[in-house]
User: What shape does this take?
Amino acid sequence: MDLREQLQSTLGTSYTLERELGGGGMSRVFVANENALGRKVVVKVLPPEMTQGVSVERFKREIQLAAQLQHPHIVPVHASGETGGLPFYTMPFVDGASLRSRLAKVGALPIGETISILREVAKALAYAHERGVVHRDIKPDNVLITGGSAVVTDFGIAKALSASRLQAPDGTLTQLGTSIGTPAYMAPEQAAGDPNVDHRADLYSFGCLAYELLAGNPPFHGRTPQRMLAAHMGERPQAISELRPDTPPLLGELVMRCLAKEPDDRPQTAADLVRVLESVATSGGASDTIAMPNAGYVITSYAVSADTHELALFETDCAPSPARPQGLLVSSVRGTATSHTIAFQSFPPMVVGDPSWEPDGRHVDAVDRTGNSAGITRWDAFAAKSINDGSDACGDLTGAGLATAVDVDATGSAWVALQTGTSMDVVRCTGGTPTKMFTVAGNDSPQDLAVTANGRAVLLTDSAGKVWRWASGSTGPTMLSPTVPQPQVSW
Assistant: This one.
């Protein structure tokens, strides 16, 4: 009888195993249906190599403490048991992806997203630590992103394993891939097998996690596990501000303090982390300096990403020439006065860009009438390129009109204002397919466009200074104002 059959026999009719998940590290992870409640759960079975010398009964008693944790950023333990002498436990099935998978896709994360994730992980740690539960294996694999929020999984499992050992074989605490700890994120005292490891080991691991979110790799990346552990115990990592210059100073200082070798030199509680991260989130860690445009240029349009705290700027040369084209920049809104150019491309003098961030905080949709039949181009804000692989924000709008303004709703659909010569049309583009939403008759030109997050209402201004409002389900747009001096709108 294989493990799955054995586990199903142990679970009886209470749970029905559906499938096994990959990427469970050293654990075997199964998705199951809890039949009485009709909900999906995850069943994690610890392998023999991890549970050698462990009292299963004591493990089940120890895990009861973790099962008491109820917090919005913690995935709770539902139940525990054993099958064939191997401990297992159940947790809610989280419909989301691990932070590890996000890092694998995009590398280092934007500053704003990093702060948001770290703040939520710190809140989870603060709550658990106050109740005597230490994680001991904080890493991207154990942080899940669901519904735009971070939740921490496997709280208390490593501590329960450690506390339930009948004996402690050599190497137990430093075995690669076990839930006792992972070398890339392991505190020096944890790597040394110190029996007095406390909650401050989690703060060191938190520093490694933060370092990776900002730099793309944890400290001492690329070394063997043995050399990595030795570095954790005796080598100072390169300052995160050197690897990621746009890191807010307060955040950079916090990360390096968490990575102190001595527990007494780190922040002493996770609540301290939360307070600093709240300060970074509201103040940016230093000043509100925004990168200035290039010499001789003026900013013609801009957009701020609420999630990533980045600013997209379109710049226009005061004296346009082929050698000095307009360009699209991305800059930190807060923190440092640095910016990085994501694209520079010759635009006709009339094009102003009108950038709008997509919900992922990475892509920018902007007006582009040069060599682009769609009139709207998607830009990858952190890969220094436009996307020319057929993924234009609106597909082909050839013949539909001249794009003059764009905005993006919370689903990622681009709403584009078009001038046709006899009317102003607004189309919604979902998956590259445009759909006309409404029309305003007349030969005025659209100037600005703003759509609500749910896509149920639009504000539109024209060259005559009129402001129009359209709502889903209405027979057509309504004029709100016959004339405004500067026709810019926003919800």
